[in-house]
Structures are given as C-alpha cells and as structure tokens.
Design a protein that fits this description.
There is one protein chain. α1 packs across α8, α3 runs parallel beside α5 and α7 packs parallel to α9. It is globular, with a radius of gyration of 19 Å. β5, α6 and β6 form a beta-alpha-beta unit. The relative contact order is 0.15. The protein has a domain of about 210 residues: 3-Layer(aba) Sandwich (Rossmann fold). With about 325 residues, it is of the alpha/beta class. The protein starts with a strand and ends in a 7-residue tail after the last helix. The structure holds UDP-4-deoxy-4-formamido-beta-L-arabinopyranose. The site of UDP-4-deoxy-4-formamido-beta-L-arabinopyranose has 17 residues, from α7 and β8. The site of UDP-4-deoxy-4-formamido-beta-L-arabinopyranose (WQD) has 17 residues, from α7 and β8.
C-alpha cells in the first residue's frame, strides 16, 4: 500500500515508517516540524536503505494537504499528527482543540475528496475515564481530564459518526499506553523539545548527565512499591501494531484496539531497568505527586491479540537498552 503518515517524522510516526517500508509498503511522510526535525526522514531512509518521501505540510493548510493527495496515489492514512503535551493543553485549550480537531477534519475532508477511505488513528489510553478498573478494556467508558485527552475522545467520536454516515470507510482506533524505547539501530528515537514531561526520556537525560536526578512523582500510591505503575510498550512493537491494523483495513466499519503489553511497571522498576541499561546508578529524589496522575494504568491486550494477531513481545530491559543506545547516539549521528 502507499500510506500517508501525518506526523510522520515524530516519535511513533518515524518508527512506523520503518516498519511499513521494511514490510514492503511505500510511505509519504508529512509533518509541520512543530515537534520533530526534518532530518528524521533521512534517518528513516538510512535505516531502510532508500530515500523516503517527506513533505513539510501543516494539516491546517487545506491547499497543501489537497496537493499531497493530487500528487500521490494514497491507499491509506495513518494519522499521528497532533499536539500532545497534557500540561500544555490545560494552559492552551483553544490551541489544542483548533490544532487537533480542525486538522483532523481537514484531513478527513481531503481524504473524502480524493476517495481515500482507509484510516488508522493514533488514539491514547488517556481517553479512558479515570475511575475505570484496570486492566482497561476497549468497551470501558471514555472521558478525559484534560483538553489533550478530550481531543482524542472527540476525534474518536468524529470517526465513529463518519463511519455511521458513510459505511464504506474503514477505520482503526489504536489506543496506545506508554510508548518508549527506540529503533535498535539507535538512529531514530524519542527526541522531545525542552525538558521531557514523560518519565523515560527524562531518565535517559539523567543517565546522559544532561539532568541532575530523577524526580519520583510520589511513592505513596497504592501500588506494590508505592510508585506509579504504567504499561510501557516498545515503540517497535507499537509500529508492528499499526502495520497489522493497516493491513486489516479491508473491511468497512470502525474497530478500537488497545496497544499495550498488559503488564505494569513501576517508576522504580523503570529506573532500575535503565540503570542496568546504562551501567550506572541514577540519582533519584522523591517529589510530590503530579496532579492528575493515576496510581496504576495498564491494558487488557486480549482484543488486539484476537483481532489483529498483535502481541507486544519486547520487555522493559530491551526498551531501556534501545532507548539508551539512541540517547548515546542522538547528538552524534549525521547522514553519511
Ligand atoms: C509515567 C509515570 C508518573 C515523569 C503520558 C500522557 C499520555 C500519553 C503517555 C500521549 C507516572 C511518573 C513521570 C517524571 C515520574 N501521552 N513520572 N517522574 O503520565 O502515564 O502518560 O504519556 O498520549 O496521554 O498522559 O506518562 O511518562 O509522564 O509518567 O515519577 O519525571 O512516571 O507519575 O506514574 P503518563 P509519564
């Protein structure tokens, strides 16, 4: 298939591009580079052994977007593009609703005009109501606690309503848990702007000596060691999940799948795994709980196993080892 990846030079998009090309698909990456770098496309090309098409396009630019469909015979779309910082979304709700919702509607209208009706949407476990029991199942109630999460809930609803109105659309809603790690080559990985909000990129920068210590946001939760538990999934497993979903867009309708391991790891377990990966002790300090954090979040992965034949196979040590290899190379790599 020729697959358009919006947000294609981002963390998940770039790793999915590698997975798709190496499985025989062709990719067209579009991105506005607000939260990624143009050279990521060269890095993807380096890994797959040939150049990949990459265009600077903002989904808010209707004409630019329509030109992409006019110039490329797109068979399907994976929609990654969107602002995704939870804290920033609370401070800038209009920017988040405008950027994430208008961009998505522009994309869907451009797809309709071009007759492209196969879509995989990058959703998130953040759509699940906070009072759901764990492990989360796809039929559990949704409801967010921040504008970022609400944009994901709303886009899922837009897509369900579109499919109800136009049943020839094929849509997959993929709810990610906590994607971490990097491609084993170390050539691409998570490259957040500024001080990372998320745990593993923060720990990686402590390991690299760029940050002084890890702050453990609370150690008095009702969890085995008192620290927050999450379902960390290797970004390459996540990329495989996207390919399997894409290749099952041959049936009309909309399906929702969790992409997680079904296993929870605590903050202290992640720090210990990272210490094994980088071979040094990482200084930590217990800090106050972060507002909005839940004690424990992890997936019931059984529907994706049955419906997509998807199982995340890589464990926490491999995730941290691949993340560390990327962290060590991230600054030094140039396109040869
Ligand atoms: C993980 C655990 C923290 C940082 C977020 C978004 C979610 C999704 C994935 C987009 C928690 C603890 C963290 C730190 C810490 N993103 N922590 N010190 O909050 O589970 O999910 O990213 O879809 O929408 O909410 O991920 O990595 O921020 O936190 O102790 O410096 O690590 O309390 O228990 P989270 P996270």
């Amino acid at each position: 298939m020729v697959v358009l990846l919006t947000g294609g030079t981002g963390f998940i998009g770039s790793h999915t591009a590698v997975e798709l090309v190496q499985a025989g698909h062709e990719v067209v990456l579009i991105d506005n580079y607000v939260n990624s770098h143009p050279d990521v496309a060269d890095r993807v090309g380096h890994i797959v052994g040939r150049p990949v098409t990459s265009l600077q396009i903002d989904l808010l630019d209707r004409a630019g977007l329509e030109a992409v469909f006019a110039q490329h015979r797109i068979d399907g779309v994976i929609h990654f593009a969107g602002l995704k910082a939870v804290g920033e979304s609370v401070a800038r709700p209009l920017a988040y609703y405008h950027n994430n919702l208008t961009a998505t509607i522009n994309l869907l209208e451009a797809m309709t005009a071009a007759g492209v009706k196969k879509l995989v949407f990058s959703s998130s476990a953040t759509v699940y109501r906070a009072d759901n029991p764990v492990p989360y199942r796809e039929d559990y109630p949704v409801g967010a606690t921040n504008p970022y999460g609400w944009t994901k809930v709303m886009i899922e609803q837009i897509l369900r309503d579109l499919v109800a109105a136009e049943p020839d659309w094929s849509v997959m809603l993929l709810r990610y848990f906590n994607p971490i790690g990097a491609h084993p080559s170390g050539v691409i990985g998570e490259d957040p702007n500024g001080i990372p909000n998320n745990l593993v990129p923060f720990v990686a920068q402590v390991a690299a000596g760029r940050l002084p210590r890890v702050r453990v946001f609370g150690d008095d939760y009702d969890t085995p060691d008192g620290t927050g538990v999450r379902d960390y999934i290797h970004v390459m497993d996540l990329a495989l999940g996207h390919r399997l979903a894409l290749e099952r867009l041959d049936r009309p309708g909309v399906e929702t799948y969790n992409l997680g391991t079904g296993a929870g790891s605590s903050v202290r377990q992640v720090v210990a795994a990272y210490q094994r990966a980088c071979g040094r002790e990482l200084p930590t300090v217990v800090a106050p709980r972060r507002a909005g954090d839940l004690p424990s979040v992890y997936a019931d992965p059984s529907k994706a196993a049955a419906g997509l034949g998807f199982r995340a196979r890589r464990g926490l040590d491999e995730m941290c080892a691949d993340s560390w290899r990327w962290q060590c190379r991230a600054d030094g790599w140039t396109v040869d």
